[in-house]
Every structure is written in C-alpha cells, then in structure tokens.
Design goal:
In chain A, 55% of the residues lie in helices and 10% in strands. By secondary structure, chain A is α+β, with helices and mostly antiparallel strands. In chain A, helix 11 packs across helix 14 and helix 17 runs parallel beside helix 20.
Chain lengths: 704, 704
Amino acid sequence: MVDTSLSPAAVEGGILDEDRDHVTDGIRIDVEELSEKMLGSWPEQRRAARRLTARPEFHRIEGQSLEEYRDTVFGQLKLLVENGQVHRAFPKQLGGMEDHGGNIAGFEELVTADPSLQIKSGVQWGLFGAAVLHLGTREHHERFLPGIMSLETPGAFAMTEIGHGSDVASIATTATYDAETEEFVIHTPIRAAWKDYIGNAAVHGKAAAVFAQLITNGVNHGVHCFYVPIRDDDGFLPGVGGEDDGIKGGLNGIDNGRLHFTNVRIPRSNLLNRYGNVDADGTYSSPIASPGRRFFTMLGTLVQGRVSLDGAAVLASAVGLQIAITYASQRRQFNAASDVQEEVILDYQRHQRRLLPKLATTYAQTFAHDELLVKFDGVFSGKRDTDDDRQDLETLAAALKSLSTWHALDVLQEAREACGGAGFLAENRLTSLRADLDVYVTFEGDNNVLLQLVGKRLLGDYGKRFKDADATTLARFAAEQARGKVVNGTGLRSLAQTVADFGSTARSVGRLQDEQAQRELLTDRVESMIGTIAGRLRAASKLSKAEAAALFNQNQNELIEAAIAHAELLQWEAFTEALSTISDPATKKVLTWLRDLFGFGLVEKHLAWYLIHGRLSGQRAQSVTAYIDRLLARLRPHAVDLVDAFGYTQAHLRAPIASGIETERQEEAAAYLADLRASGNAPVDEKATKSTFDALNHPKKSRK
Amino acid sequence: MVDTSLSPAAVEGGILDEDRDHVTDGIRIDVEELSEKMLGSWPEQRRAARRLTARPEFHRIEGQSLEEYRDTVFGQLKLLVENGQVHRAFPKQLGGMEDHGGNIAGFEELVTADPSLQIKSGVQWGLFGAAVLHLGTREHHERFLPGIMSLETPGAFAMTEIGHGSDVASIATTATYDAETEEFVIHTPIRAAWKDYIGNAAVHGKAAAVFAQLITNGVNHGVHCFYVPIRDDDGFLPGVGGEDDGIKGGLNGIDNGRLHFTNVRIPRSNLLNRYGNVDADGTYSSPIASPGRRFFTMLGTLVQGRVSLDGAAVLASAVGLQIAITYASQRRQFNAASDVQEEVILDYQRHQRRLLPKLATTYAQTFAHDELLVKFDGVFSGKRDTDDDRQDLETLAAALKSLSTWHALDVLQEAREACGGAGFLAENRLTSLRADLDVYVTFEGDNNVLLQLVGKRLLGDYGKRFKDADATTLARFAAEQARGKVVNGTGLRSLAQTVADFGSTARSVGRLQDEQAQRELLTDRVESMIGTIAGRLRAASKLSKAEAAALFNQNQNELIEAAIAHAELLQWEAFTEALSTISDPATKKVLTWLRDLFGFGLVEKHLAWYLIHGRLSGQRAQSVTAYIDRLLARLRPHAVDLVDAFGYTQAHLRAPIASGIETERQEEAAAYLADLRASGNAPVDEKATKSTFDALNHPKKSRK
C-alpha cells in the first residue's frame, strides 16, 4: 500500500532560509561550547568511544540472519577488547583503570554503533564481569576476571527466571551446600525456575553468574551469586540445559536464551562470597546481619546497568532527533504562503510541537544523566560512598532510567513518523533503533516497578520527616522550608513548602519565565501528591496484611505518577543547574528558552492537577500553552544548532535522509522548474485557463 | 543484559480466583452474544476470513530472509485467489460479487495472519485493482481486471513520490500526450519525482497504475492515472527503472521499491479515463469541470484504503489485548496480601490502568469502524451515494483511521511491556505486530495531515452554519440545538449547544454515569474549540496569502487537537449506539461500565480544558478520576470475557504466553512448594531464624 505521507502536517506559515538571521535577532548558539558541555563530566572517554563507534566495523549490518548477526556482534566484542575499550572499570592490578564513571560514559556511546553491541558488551563486562568483581573477592578476581576481560570466557548473567522477573528475591533456583564434598549443588526444581532472557546463554556463554537461594544446614540464606561453568566447545556441560529464545523484537545480535540446572555441582569456592560465605563445614556467615539488607546490598552493586541504560537511552534520543530535525529543516511540503516555493516542514507549528518539546526533554535528560553518572562514580570510586549515597544513587537511577527509556521510544517513534515513509526504511535507522531500545523499558527493572520503588522511597522520606508530627510541627517545617533551598539530592523535596508560599506561587507564575516559579510549581506537585498518599496510607498500620495491601493497591497508580513527577523535577533541576555553567550569553539565552519549554511542558502536561489544586487559575493555565507556542517559534531557528550540539557526525547518524540529499533533491527540483519556466515550454495549468473563464462569467467568485 | 521485569507493577491488593463470582455479583457477560455483535454488519464474511486465517499456510514465519519472506507472501496471495477470498468487490460479470462492505471486512481480517499478507493483497486488489476499477471504464475492466484478479498481472500503485508524500496534487511525474502517435509519454523529470515506497515495485510488479500530471496541447489538466506495463519476466521494460527500498521497519513480506520512467510510451487507451479523457487529437474532456473537484473525486474512490486500515488496526489492537490480558490474568508476581500465594498481576491497580482503558477504546473503535464500513458500503454500492455521503465518508475515514492506527501502536507497546521479557520475544507476536502496524499511521495519508483535513471540514461546517450570523442568530441556533439530537453524521456536531445548556452540563455531570452528561461534555469541547479557532481565523480573509498562512499556522496544532476531539466523540457515540442493541442485561451492564470508562477516560485526558473553560469544577474533576478507579475495579473480573468476545482462537493469537502455559507453570510451582512443605525437608528461612533472635532481643521491633 502506498505511503501518501512523508509530510507531517499540511498548511501554511513559515520562515524562509534567507530570513533565518533576521528571525534569530542575530542570536546564534555557540555550538562548540555547547557540544563540549553536552559531553558531560567524562568528555575524553566519550570522544574516544565516538572515534571507535564512527568506524564501520562496529556498525550494525541490516538484514543479516540471526546466526550471522550474533557472530558479527561477538566479533565486534573482540574488537572492543583489542581497542582497550572495555576494561576501564576493572582493577588496576589486572590491567583495568578503576575509572567507573568514564567506563560507563564510554560504554553508553556504543549504542550509536549498534544497541546489540552495547548490550552484549554490557552482559559480558557490566553484568557477568561486574558480578564477579563486586560480589566476588580477590581470589575470584584473580581466577576469573582475566578470562572475562579478554573474552576468553564469554559469560551469562543468570538472574531472571521465567516465574520471577522483577521479583528477584523470590527466584526458585537453589544452591544447596554439601559439606561432604565441599560443593554447592545448583538445581532448577520447576519449569518456572528456568533462567530466561539471558544474554550469551543460547550460544556463546561458557560460564554464568547464577543467582540462587543459598541453602546450608537446612537454612535458606536468600539469594546469592555463584560462578558456574556451563559450556565447553562441545556444548552444555553435564546437568546444564537450555533453549534459544529465538528471534526477539530487537537486539537480535545477542543470543538470549534459557538455562536450567539438574544437580550441577560446583566447588564451594565458586560462591561469590563478598557478602555471604559458607565455611567447609557448612557454617554461613555474612558481614551484613539482616538478610533483607544483604540482598539489597548485593543487588545494589549492579546499579550500573540502570545507570548506563539511562545514558544510552538519552543518546539514542539525541540520534533520533538529530536525524528528524535535520530532515525537517530541509524537506518542503505543500505551498500555502507562496505559490513559488513549498514550506519547510519544520516551519509548521504542528511539526514544531511534535519535535521541539522532545528536544527540550532530551537536553534535560542529558544533564540529569551526567549528575547520575557523577553520583555513581562517587559511590563506586569510594569517594562518596555512605549508605545515604548508595540509596540516593539507586533512587536516582531508577527514576531517571524509567523516564529516559520511555522517552527514547517516544522520540524514535515521533521521529520516524515525522520523516514519513523515509522514516520507515531501515536505512534511516529510526525503526531499528526503536526496536532495539524497546526492551530497555523493562529490563534491569520494569519501569513501573522501578517507579514504585521511587514512590516508596518518597513515602519513606515523608514518614521519617513527619514521624509523630502534629499540625503545628508541619506548619513550622513548612515555613522553614519556604525560605530554604531544596534539601535532598534525590529524595523528597522541600516538603510542604507550599503550605507557606502557595499564595506566592500563584502570583509569581505570572512571570512565566521566572525560574523560581517553575521550581515551585514542580516541587509543590510532588510534595502534595506524596503527602496526600501518605495520609491515605496512615490507616494501613492498623489493618491486616491483606487489607493493608488492598489499601496500598488503591493508591498504586497515583504513587507511580508521583514518582514520575519527582523524576521530572530532578530533570528540570539538572537542566537549570547546567544553565548556570554556560558562559556564552546567546547560548545561555537559547538554552533558557529550551529549559522553559521543558518546564512549561511539564506544567501543561499536568495542568489539570494545578487547576484542581488551585495552584493556577484558569486564565494563567491558558497562558501556559500560549507561552509554549511562543517558545516554539523562538526556538525554531535554533533547532538545527541544538541537535548539532549533540556532537554526532554522519558516521554516527548514518541516515541518508539526514545527509543533505534532501536539500540536493529540493535544489534539483527548483532548478528544473525555473528552467522550465524560462524555456517558455511550461504547460499552462488548467486552473489558470479556468480562472480566465470564471473571471469572465463569475467575476466576484474568481477574486477569492 | 538481564530482564528483571516480566511483572508490571509491584505490590498488593487483589482478587483471588475463587472470589471471582462473588466480586462480579454473579453478573456474567454473554460472551456468545457479544462476540456476534463484535463481528459487525458482515459477520459471515468475517467468519469465512477467520477460518482462512486460522490455517497455518497463511501465517507469518519469523526469521525468513527478505527474499524468502517476500516469496512466501506472494505465494499466500495466490492461495487467497484459489480460496476466492479477494474478488468480492469486483464486477459480477468478471466473477466478482460487488460486495464492497463484505470485501473490506474479510480483507481486514488478514491482519491476524500477517500484516504483510494484508497489505500486499491490499496493494494488488485494493489499490492497483481498485484504480483500474474505479478510475477506468468498462473497456479497462475487461482488458485488465481478469489478470489483476487472478494475480497473473501483479501490479503496483505508483502514486507517492519521494518529493511529495501526502501532497499528491503536487507530484512531478508527467504524462504528455503525443497526438502524432496517439500515445502518452510517461516521464520522471527529476529525482524527487521518483515513485517511492511502492509495494510490488521492487520484485513482483508487472504493471503499475501510475499517477502523473496529464499534459495535452500545452495544458496541464492535473493528476490522472495511467496503466503502465513495467516489467516482463526478464526485468524492467525499456525506459523503466527502479530500486529496492530494502529492509523496512516492518511489513518486510512486501517488496516496496522505487520506480522512474524515461519517456515511456503507452497507448492513449491506457489512460484510466472515467474522470478525464483525451481524444485522438489531444482534446481533453471531463465530466467534472473543476480541476480541484475532479482531483478529489478521483482520490475519493480510493478511500477504501483508509477504511480498511482503520478496521485492521482495531483488530490488531484486539489481538494485542487478548494476549496481554489473558497472560495478566494467569501470571502472578510478588506476594503482599498473602504469604502463601503471589498476586495475579491483573489485580494490580496500575496494571488495570495500563490495559483496561485501552480495552474500552478498542471496543469503541470496533463499533465506530462498523459504522464507517456501513457508510462505505452505502456509497460504493450506490445505495447512499450523494456528494454529502462521499464527503462524510472521507471525513469519517480520515478521523477514525488516524486514531485507531495510533491506538494500535499504543496498545501493542503497552501489551508488550505488560508481558515483560516474554512480550519481547517474537514468538509472542506483540513486537512483530507493532513493527508491521507502525507504517499504518503515515500511509494512506499521514495521520496529522488527515486530521488537519478533518479540522478544515469542521471549520467549513462552522462557516456554512454561521455565515453572516449575528449574536442573536447564534443564540437562537444554540437554543434549538440544545433540545435536539446531534445533527450531522460525521460533520460538526450540534454547534453552540452549550451556549444554552452550559449550566445544565455542569450540573448533570454530577451523575457521572449519566449518558447525556458524557455526550454534552464531549460535544461541547469540539464545538467550542472549532468556534474559537474559527473566530481567530476570521481575520484571514483580509490578509495577504502569506499572512493568512501564518495565521492559520498559529492555530494548526489546536485545529488538529479539535479534530481528535471530534473523532473521539464519534467513537463514543458509536459505542453508545451499540449499547442500545444489546439484549442480555448483564452484558449491557458491563458494557455500559466499559463505555463509561471510555467516556470518562476522554474527560480525564482533557480535564484541563474542562476546568479552564468552566465546564467542570475542581471537585467534580477529581471525581472523574475516582470514578475511573471504581470502574476499573468493577471491570476487572470481566476482563477475560471482554477479550474473549473479540472471538479469536489460539490459531489467530498464536502466542505461547496466552495459551495457558503460564497457568501450568504456576500450578507446577504451587504443587512443588506444597510437596516440599509436606515433606518436612523445606529449608527454614534465615529471616525466620532471625526473627526468633530479634524477638528475644528487640521484642517491640519484631512485631512490625
């Protein structure tokens, strides 16, 4: 069936190229400075990774069979090793650099070459390798890491089971200690306990970090991680079995599969025992007494997966927007304002509405991700590694990963639609990127589950702060907060501030571009939502377990919405913080508009809430949308500079439609028409002959 | 990287299976009656098509190479011919049945076998064949249709050009008449005029319906359609060239490609001349004097493409929901309410929020589509074929196709996420369906462009009704409308009704379940938005073309939003109309809740508008969300019945996760745990040993 699209939206208005300078009032972004800013805190590592990802041998080849594709990506992993790209996080004595932030920054950049390459290397070094590194001890590092780092031992990270996805604590695979032989027996008792969706499991994996319930002396000490050889060159080892997951919705360069174990024996020393050890006689010991805390500590060491997915998702959004906005700035469709030339599609208001707010969000997420990466590096380097830091890191990672991965899918879809039929061709990359990124929203924690964790953290902060508080305490706190800045890095913001300055919020939003007004509106919403839910849940302590669960469930959707509001606020603050570091005045001005577009986009999205809760009057609420329209028109002339500042070259974009061929086609068409007109051979339009006729017969009508 | 998801949302609440009857208060949908209803006005044709699509030889085979896949689908097209599935719309004297509605109903059903099969057969018979049928005359029918119907002549529909997607009127391919040889010369003067995204163009097409500017005697008479042979068994014919579009984001069973023509000569008689003819001497004549009207009439005959995409999109949504809701009703994750058994994930409020409103929308779209199909059949059978009918049909098709194709993408994505990692496996069909449906939102008219057409129609209706109206006229009209029913099939609704009964709207919404209140809220919004935009555009008549275009552009986004509001209202009315035809009281009750969920979902989505414009108070607005939450809980026990009523069997769903294996796994796991407990060999939980310890040392804490 034919594609009658390619254009986004059909009518008038617009800025001609020659008008561009006029429209911008001479303001022009300093793309170089901004590009540098967008590289974040590890610019050298990103630049090095981008030099690598520009090389054709790392690029995805469309149309390969499943087997070929998996082999290609496996070969690319070896190339990464040869190019020293993947060892930055490992110990110095083993050839690593102990550079945690830089490692993730470089790793994320692989997404522009091929998300399969990114994720497969993530499986090998970020999950399998990181499990040995963080859950094992020195002896394990020396024994296992060299083979992992060199890819001599491709490995799997066997945590998820068919029966339990995000609920890792409930997995059913067992590791029972046999003191007689000093071995653990790894066993999969039921079909639901098969490990599933495991990268490297179907073909390449030789070993696996297997998560199982550790049982010794008749006691289940909860989930621990074991190093289990699974395959040699002849296939599965005795007792190990599995299946290929086959074709997936994306990431088909990775051999995901299922694994099961039938009384597979491994030496006691293969327990990765940093957080839990079993002596030869079967005695269990752990530096962390509480089983719950131990579990979360172990899983917490694997937070880098979420951190890196957040970063990779933001980069994929950047690539999508750079393709779509570049194309939209060259392509013309429909002539309304002029009979001679058609309109540039980015001049259509609807097209701006579709792409520019997403550009603003991608900027916010870029800056927010850098803050997350700095926090991650602080914890993992040990520079800032308190319990609070770790908890903040986890909350921040969960909040940002959820929003940025969903956003990437939205961006890539809108970008593909905005490029019409051309956007649907694999050669223009948008559909493949979207298909590959799809699973980012559920792996490393389903976004809805992660956001619920964020929501619970916010409720916890609320509870801590207002434990046994009466109304007077609340009011005093509110007044104190009203004059202070936001308190907590990633936890609940200056709670109840609005009790005090609700009046001023309503007034100050009059100056819509006022930074403080935006902050107050966004902060206020998170606080109020959490406070309301907390109030409703107060009764839970007096209820039975089932009743309390039902009460919580009635508030589940709203709690997740509150968590989203919190994550949006964090992004807004990161954007605002970044503004203060930009020196070029024109760049700062344009980025401030972009930040405002993001901030007021959030307010518009949640406008009903602001109206219902009396934070905005109806009239003010309408001006939010009007202001957004104004910002779109202001930002339009800077759109190409803003995507260029992401810093990707054609070697990274690799989309013919963003390469300039559209401009060439437009110019060829314009020249053809001009020649035809000049030749005097141009056919006359039937309408033109008609209007002469009409003019004679219906003089009034023809004037229209 | 591992998928730690599979679950949607993590905590408590819920309905146990055994409680189901209690919770439903004994009400149970009559699935059989409802299924029949859902089949719409051509149930026999749908049933016949479903018998066919249940057969394995029509099913998509995942993992084929591009070439194999294209061959498979081409072979399936031959099977369709053999099974008499595709000739219903053709003339009786040529072996057809002249059954237009039934033809489309059956055609749509192919989507569950494979969207590539649907669209490739749409290219052959719905576009290429329909162009000959509707734009050609008897001589063309006899000469070309037999080969088209039998698939002896696979053909392409060569309308879209690289340089002009949705703007068909501006295509640049020319067909210049040469009176000396009585031939048309088909020519592609520039790269931008290459036909692109053309199904059957890359490999299988032997001929094409080529759209080109008809030029004779120095006058361009606008776009006409020509029958052009393009290929024999040895490849392209002289002067014809092309390229393969290669891999696409979906629909890879179809060989889309590009075509170009270098002075290709075809006989005069190959002009499909129903709406425009050229005599031997080059004299042009047409039964439609106005070139603009002629163009829209010709394109209007091809509306069935949009009609069928609407229907196919709704069926794809149904399949996605049946898979996700079936799985969600079996899968369990996290135990909060009970220590013994985990929660069924569809009992989580968030999971209900994610799926059930989409189910309500899919029902509304099912009923709306049937109305569209009836209208289509009326026009194409000649039973109801006035100019107004045709215009209504086009507006309705544009409005419904836009919303249902976007909805299908949303549904399939949400369904895939709701099924977690399992949803990402190709075997569970959600990702492939989504990839294939992606292009439905831009082909046969980009959704944004189509919605703008709808918006312009609404503005036109407004203009006609209030031409030269003064305030008194408006008020009188409003008062008249207030007591009447909605006026126009698909055009603008009882405009300005709210001027009169705004007060009563605000009051009547108190009874949230009141049908009339929902209708008024939805109608009011469309009318007010269009009225506002019309008011702003009034100045345009006094402006220059460029200024008028700029003014329109400033309102473009809002106009498209108004068109969406209009389409939503049409869907709501179709759902409401369908309710009145259901006889079983329990079914009617449950479906009324579902309709309310749809209606109040729309009100909630646009809540800010209702608040800003004083249609709802803040308090009432809050109760909208509360009421939706109540409806979700009420509908939950009926969710499986509601998806079963779509009427698809496992042969249509073909998703292992929806086959019952999840229940088997749950039962195996429960039996294993029960056996383990009974054996006395179950390991003790470390927490249990700890809490004894804690109870001794911290008696207060341990009670929590």
